[in-house]
Amino acid sequence: MESERHNKIPSSPSQHSRKRTGIEWPTIGLMTACYGLWFFSGFHVYDTMPLVALAAMAISVALHSSLQHEVLHGHPTRSGLVNEILISLPIGLVFPYRRYKHLHLKHHADERLTDPYDDPESYFRAMGDWEKLPAFVKSLLNWNNTLSGRIIIGPILMAIGFIIAEVKLVAGGDRKTRTAWLLHFAGLFPMLTIVWMVFGIPLWIYALTAVYWGLSIISIRSYCEHQWSERPDGRTIIVEKSPLALIFLNNNLHFVHHKRPTAPWYDLPELYREQREEWQRMNGGYVFRNYFEILRAYAFRKKQEVVHPVLRREPAPGRAFRPRRHGISLQGGSTMPIPAEPPKE
């Protein structure tokens, strides 16, 4: 595999390397709007327009997932504990924040992106694992590699696989995983109490509509965020414009986020506009104008095979995760730290 190299990019006049100070109020505002829409829809709208309310709550669930992503990268305050408290009501139900944080920061080791073992967010499977799967599971995973499949069955496949893996970790005595789930349950109790006792929404309806639809919205973003490329920079997508950009907190510009993981969501569009051609050159042109292009191309057609085309083709134990600790800034040749290693909790 080609070693990772980055081209030096001239500094732009409006350098975004300014130090973060104080509270990032746009993110605080979105957190307030997210929880406000969720509560208003459940409390005031559900009785008269239940489908409208559940659809609005699904938008809140999707936005909440994006806000969790923003928080784990160190926003909107300089205190990790304060940030975690701000996003602690788990309206998305399934994923404990600390587990998401731990796994996602591993994902930011770009040289291991798409690896079936070392990248926790890879949708590729190792050849040996694929060959052991029953035929019906292979069929589901093949469908899951179309956009329609990712939206329709992706959330349940993701949830089942995640929970099975987490149960094994807890049963094996992983204390950090157990702590993360205990904190998650502590947040689930008041959240589900509000849904059932205050909103009057049966929990199974909430799970199968608001939560599931919210995860489906997020699946649109994650569907082809990464592809295999010999060049690590060529593995991450840029989707230039989208009406869903606010819900995704501009992570449609995913390559920009991977190169500037500490930049707040509201800086990403300007960072991209300032050096659009350079960003596209760096990621090898893995660019779509919008998600409608992706829908037209891959609604019912697999974008890629489930089995990784290069990595893990031969039976071998999973390589221990060795994160890259520094990356080259787009603004020049100097290195900048990236949060590739989970913090000690």
TrEMBL record:
Q: What Pfam families does its record include? A: FA_desaturase
The annotated region (Disordered) lies at: 1-20, 317-345
Q: Which UniProt keywords apply?
A: Membrane, Transmembrane, Transmembrane helix
State any GO BP term from the record: lipid metabolic process
Q: Report the superkingdom from the record.
A: Bacteria
**What residues form the membrane-spanning segments?**
21-43, 49-67, 79-97, 147-167, 179-199, 205-224
Alphabetical list of InterPro entries matching this protein: FA_desaturase_dom
Fatty acid desaturase domain mapped to chain residues: 51-287
Q: What is this protein called?
A: Fatty acid desaturase
